[in-house]
Amino acid sequence: MPNAWYALSVMPLAAGAFGPLPSGPALVIGGLIAAVGAAVQLSEAHERSVRRDTADEVIADALGERVPDSVVWRLEELGETQLRKRLAKSLFGILRDADGPSTAMVIPVARGAVRRNHEVIAELASRLAAVDRPIDPRGVARLRLLLVRLSSPLYDPDAADALQREFIRARATLDPRRRP
Q: Is 175 helix (H, G, I), strand (E, B) or coil?
């Protein structure tokens, strides 16, 4: 609970401002407590991210309708409207960046491979954006992993065929009626 750390950091600052503690040490103590709170918050966020990635791997590779009980919590998150819209926006952004002039991206996508797979990527983005239509969480998990993993063929200019296979596989698992 990082907010508790920040609330705790205010105490020495207030003590320094109102007299019981000299302002210099109060500022240092308050700053240290806030820094510990920030470190705890970052650590917890990283832990949640790793937990989601691990659950997404299990869900994406699940056969049939059943997923292990240990990852059932993630199924609901994968179907959330906000996540679907965010993934759709990312896919549309990748298409736009691949078709536009070369830019200095933090993590460049394999532009040629993206252009080659434009149709299936656009279809997937549109499908995710259609939040009134049901989706299979396995497909969402597969797409999310494709976007967030640096080892993904999306970021390898020599993996156009692998990227195409991954997008086709994601399309097949995204639609509840289409089971691979």
A: coil
